[in-house]
Design goal:
This protein has 326 residues and is α+β, with helices and mostly antiparallel strands. It has five helices and 18 strands. The chain is globular.
């Protein structure tokens, strides 16, 4: 009788503990919902604020996270393919191929996509910006594309050669900025829980949140993303994939509940990285006072001529440029 009573008490305590954990988990998710609702007003005016930031030189608008809603399957597409657009002097986000982490579903007994990620830099596709000495922004984006599970992410960044962070928290043009949002609706807000000093990680530097209960990683419910903007400066020209070795911004993505934990480069990898071995984007930085280098994404003579012939005409001057570059 006593044994049965003890077993009953133990089961009761276990069930109470499980209910308590469930209540805490629900409360955390509910709090995230309230936090987002409280910041929703920022998203309503995002169009105006994005235009203003592009003109004043502050951190640029978000990358094209809406593209993630169109296709949540594993993909190799670039969010913005600079080599396929006409040369523009207006700065824009230039983003590399996406990559993924995966989740093992213990009930359905199958592998599912968990996150999609990519890195970007803010520049002009005619290579007129940035130039050596200019402050420009890089970004890393991680989105939870799984329909039913959270993702706990911590993206790390490896910078190109001759490039460093150019952070000054007191200068709005040089602050690190962290954004959380829903990629399906385009709503987002800037969070103040955004460190201004990078931490040293396994593969590179990272900017983890510091507030409880998620110190050290970004907790992303299904359909949410985190995007981190960080100011950079380069002391020498960069030539993207055309250089040897390539001048690349690289992202190594830790996701705590993913298979293998990392979407990161493996031993022997170099930019351009294989699928699911991290994310990358070649970075172009012109010499100070000059734009004489290949456009972003152009790595050989054939691509160069096709790039300038996009408007139906390839001039002799453009041919000479291509011949000089390649």
């Amino acid at each position: 009788m006593n044994t049965m009573y003890c077993m009953t008490e133990e089961i009761t305590r276990t069930n109470k503990a499980r209910r308590a954990i469930a209540v805490v988990a629900a409360a955390v998710l509910f709090a995230l919902g309230l936090l987002f609702a409280g910041k929703a007003a920022l998203a309503e005016t995002s169009g105006e604020s994005e235009t203003e930031s592009a003109q004043t030189g502050e951190s640029p608008p978000l990358t094209d996270v809406g593209e993630l809603a169109a296709n949540t399957e594993a993909q190799d597409d670039e969010v913005t393919q600079a080599s396929s657009v006409t040369a523009e002097s207006t700065p824009q986000w230039i983003s590399g191929p996406t990559s993924n982490t995966y989740y093992w579903h213990p009930v359905l007994w199958q592998v599912e996509l968990l996150t999609t990620e990519y890195v970007s830099y803010y520049g002009a596709t005619d290579a007129s910006y940035p130039k050596v000495g200019d402050t420009y922004y890089g970004a890393v984006t991680v989105a939870n594309v799984n329909p039913g599970n959270p993702a706990f992410a911590s993206p790390e960044i490896t910078l190109p050669a001759n490039t460093k962070f150019d952070i000054n928290p007191s200068n709005p043009d040089k602050k690190v900025r962290c954004y959380l949002g829903k990629f399906e609706t385009g709503e987002y807000f800037e969070t103040n829980d955004c460190p201004q000093t990078p931490f040293q990680g396994t593969y590179g530097k990272y900017f983890p949140p510091q507030e409880a209960p998620h110190e050290g990683y970004w907790a992303l419910p299904p359909g949410w993303f985190v995007e981190i903007h960080f100011p950079l400066v380069s002391s020498a020209p960069l030539k993207g994939l055309a250089n040897v070795p390539p001048d690349c911004l690289i992202g190594s993505i830790w996701v705590g509940n993913s298979i293998g934990l990392w979407d990161a480069p493996q031993s022997g990898d170099r930019c351009p990285l294989p699928k699911d071995h991290g994310v990358y984007q070649g970075v172009f930085v012109s010499p100070s006072g000059s734009t004489s280098q290949p456009p972003p994404g152009v790595t050989n003579l054939e691509q160069c001529r096709a790039y300038f012939a996009a408007d139906g005409k390839l001039t002799k001057k453009e041919k000479r440029k291509c011949n000089r570059w390649f």
